[in-house]
Write a structure and sequence with these properties.
Elements (H helix, E strand, L loop, with lengths): L2 E6 L3 H11 L4 E7 L3 E3 L4 H6 L5 E3 H4 L5 E4 L2 E5 L4 E4 L4 E3 L2 E4 L3 E3 L7 H4 L1 E2 L3 H13 L5 E4 L3 H12 L4 E4 L10 H13 L3 E3 L4 E5 L2 E4 L4 E3 L1 E4 L3 E3 L2 H4 L10 E3 L11 E3 L4 E3 L8 H19 L13 E5 L5 E6 L5 E6 L1 H24 L11 H22 L1
Parallel strand pairs: 1-2, 1-9, 2-5, 9-21, 11-18, 12-13, 12-18, 13-14, 20-22
Antiparallel strand pairs: 3-4, 6-7, 7-8, 10-19, 15-16, 16-17, 23-24, 24-25
Helix pairs in contact: 1-9, 1-10
Flavin-adenine dinucleotide binds next to helix 1, strand 2, helix 2, helix 6 and helix 9.
């Protein structure tokens, strides 16, 4: 009898893990995803703006031997090693890969759930595209000064929209100050009005109110960061405060050796990596390797991925590639303008290609490694200790 691996979530992490595992003898892989197509999330701002599409048939990216079940996991019954699906069926597993990704977060701001137009899931981006098409001359207020907000604001401005970008704090806070200044210049050239230091405190139908009382009229586009599913906590699995599955550095759940996690939905050692494909893909390989190691009676290896940088597109003709240290902190080196845009497009294509290659030749995907993770964990420990000390003093 073959070993049954069940993968929850058919995004970048789930597909990569499924493809890697499907290449092993004696392993049967089933992947559960609510949509029958793969969503290329890296292109959702393009889908919303009408400058690109984001759906691919799973036949393009998934190994042919992986069984696809189109449904949603409603609960994980760890004691019985089964997953209850929203449609009522149950699937048994020997090993479970938890890779349910993330979606938009309303940040507790009144009016967001009713009136804002998020961009970070396929359904939301498609709704945003419809709203934009229905109001071709309407200005747009994009909320969120991180990569998703910047890319969405730039894409819309490049398509001829009047766009205001409300950053909440700094524009691109994780970029180096020099790269941030360059981004501000590039956004200004596209005609985007950037409001740093202003926060949106309420969203209405066709408007956003700032913390200083000003009301900005325009379609409110929500791009403030991601939130993960509560599936793990609902299922009684230990999570971090944000609901990510808590694992050790081999990506094994702290509750059950048979459950591993990857992508945006996990917090290894309680110190999550930046929500990104750059992390999701190596995490997926590590999670799959952990399962294979345990099957072979070997000790699984800890996480050893390294970051290379962050890239944003700025419309269809420009972008910025921010080079980083292996631990994901920005350095002073960056590639702006047309070359930055070409690099971003290249990276987006390569990410998809890595899934396609792994589908047909398991083991072909390779990602750079480093010992940076140990430094990240040591730093996180120091911060926790300092916070505990501060509490004692207070
Ligand atoms: C507009 C935009 C641009 C981005 N650009 C970049 C970029 O340039 N570089 C970068 O590194 N990152 C980028 N990101 C972030 C990146 O897309 C995510 O970090 C990445 O998708 C995480 O992969 P994942 O597999 O963990 O999650 P996802 O890709 O979100 O996949 C999760 C899958 O799980 C499914 N799912 C959810 N709940 C369940 C359930 N209960 N049962 C079964 N299935 C479920 C979802 O439908 C989805 O298919 C961008 C994101 C957005 C929105």
């Amino acid at each position: 009898m073959s070993t049954q691996v069940l993968v929850l979530g058919g995004g970048y992490a789930g597909v990569m893990a499924a493809n890697h595992l499907a290449g092993s003898d004696g392993v049967s892989v089933t992947l559960v995803n609510p949509r029958p197509q793969f969503v290329e999330r890296l292109r959702l701002h393009q889908l919303a703006s009408g400058t690109g599409e984001a759906l691919h048939d799973y036949a393009e990216v998934l190994a042919p031997t992986v069984r696809l079940v189109v449904d949603e996991a409603a609960r994980i019954d760890v004691a019985r090693a089964r997953v209850v699906l929203a449609g009522g069926d149950e699937l048994a597993y020997d090993w479970l890969v938890y890779a349910v990704g993330s979606r938009w977060a309303d940040g507790g701001v009144p009016g967001v759930a009713e009136h804002a137009l998020p961009v970070s899931t396929f359904e939301a981006a498609a709704r945003l595209r419809e709203a934009l098409e229905a109001a071709p001359d309407a200005p747009v207020v994009v909320v969120g000064g991180g990569s998703t907000g910047i890319e969405t604001a730039a894409e819309l401005a490049d398509s001829g929209r009047v766009v205001t970008l409300v950053c909440g704090g700094l524009l691109a806070p994780t970029f180096h100050p020099r790269a941030r200044r360059s981004l501000a210049r590039q956004l200004a050239r596209l005609g985007v009005t950037v409001l740093e230091g202003s926060r949106v405190t309420r969203v209405g139908e066709g408007s956003a109110v700032l913390d200083d009382g000003r009301e900005l009229v325009g379609l409110p586009v929500w791009a403030t960061g991601f939130q993960v599913s509560d599936l793990a906590s609902r299922s009684g699995l230990t999570t971090d405060a944000e609901g990510r599955l808590l694992t050790d550095e081999t990506l094994t759940s702290v509750d059950d050796e048979r459950v591993v996690g990857a992508g945006d939905a996990v917090a290894p050692s309680g110190v999550p990596l930046r929500a990104s494909c750059q992390a999701a893909l190596p995490l997926a390989l590590r999670a799959a390797e952990t399962v294979l190691a345990r099957l072979a009676g070997r000790t699984p290896e800890p996480l050893d991925n390294r970051f290379l940088g962050q890239c944003v597109s700025l419309g269809r003709r420009a972008g910025t590639f921010q080079v980083s240290h292996a631990d994901d902190t920005a350095v002073g080196l960056f590639v702006p303008g047309r070359a930055g845009g070409l690099l971003k497009e290249q990276v987006t294509r390569q990410v998809l290609q890595s899934l396609v290659h792994e589908a047909h030749r398991a083991g072909s995907a390779r990602f750079p490694s480093s010992s940076a993770r140990a430094r990240v964990l040591a730093r996180a420990q120091q911060v926790t200790a300092a916070e505990a000390q501060a509490k004692v003093v207070a």
